[in-house]
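#onboarding

Welcome to the new folks! Below is a worked example of what a typical request in this channel looks like: someone posts a single protein sequence, and someone else replies with the predicted structure as tokens. Don't worry about understanding the tokens yet, we'll cover that in week two.

Example request:
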Amino acid sequence: MKCPKCGEENIAGSATCEKCGEELPSAAPSGPELVPEPSEPEPAPEPSEDVESCANCGAERIGTNAFCANCGRPFPGSGPTEPETEPEPTPEPTVEPEPSPAAEAAVRGVLEITTNGGEIIIDTDETRLGRNEIRDAAKQPVPETQYEYITRVKADKEQFRIFREGDQFFIEDRGSSNGTQLNGQQIRGKGRQPLRDGDKLVFASFEATFRTL
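Example response:
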């Protein structure tokens, strides 16, 4: 070992230089060797509340893996997203409108002429009656001499009119020469009169009964 002071080579293991007596470095008393204290192991990181587990096997999700490394099941939201479909609107129930009174069948009437067995249907809002209509309604032919007497002499060409308002009928004498009787009462010149089912009429030499259908 070489002395740092005089440069003399000394025998290995010498404590001092044999030439100058200088203490050699290797011979200097060394202090007690320091043993490093053992370090405490770092605590394992606590599992984060955000760690996602597989719904099938319970294994934790590694990173952003789309599938579970244990069972291969896909994590929610990892597969392809299907397009949202809007719910079909619920059809509203169809309400059929109630038929108006005008759409319903209008009430009809019939004038039964007891003298000649004829019938005259009243199915319009206004029906004008006279000798021609009475003759045409007869079920049996009327002799010409009798016809001349009971129609041309006593029945006017327009004897009366029957008109309808809603489901109600009315009769009005048209100023005939011999007048019209309703249930035994003369109605000539009295304007329109209500005409009901079963009412009796007398005009000229004819008798008739009004009926509603």
